[in-house]
Fold:
Amino acid sequence: MTVGLVIVSHSAKLAEGVAELAGQMAPDVVIKAAGGMEDGSIGTDFDRVCTALEKADSGDGAVLLYDLGSARMIADLAVESHANPLRAVVVDAPVVEGAVAAAVAAQGGGDLAGVARAAGERPPEFGEEAPPANGESVELLLRNEVGLHARPAALLVRTIASLKADVTVHHNGQQADARSVLALMGLSARGGDTIKVVADGPDAAEALRRIGKLVEIEFEE
Structure:
């Protein structure tokens, strides 16, 4: 089982689109859209959100993200009405970015607190390239056409999720935490660009090997 997600929006189409996008990053995570009113009009429906929450929580809990303030109120009420309110949490985060980050964290086996934290985290600030002390590094040429966009970034995060290593990806004078989808996307590394991957820790060599393999197979695209 994994932590599930609920996308609460005033628009059914918006909720469904965000759920679809996040689902591409996390095929094993239950992501439910709860948007619009029962008759298809704009608004948030308490019963729809409650139903979505029940379906998203398979036992490990669920994280709810919302688009506008009144949707937050409905999401909070749904959590209070949940069979186990301690297994659900509403996160204040940009709904698209938060959903993607949360989905990847849940796919990687994160617990409820970890998934909620991932949804609400801002990407780390970029810094100048500087490999950590005693770190191993490798330079890789991105062969896939679009580089580190959403899906490849999510695959990279997932492939090192279980490893004990601090990993950063460097590109064009900037660096990003390799465990943050949003930070990796922020590097704007495209096909044909060269990135440097730096890893430190017990599993550093394995992290570099796995990322190198992903690049070699063009992120399965």
Q: What stands out?
A: The domain at 136-220 is CATH 3.30.1340.10 (Histidine-containing Protein; Chain: A;). Residues 12-25 form the longest helix (14 residues).
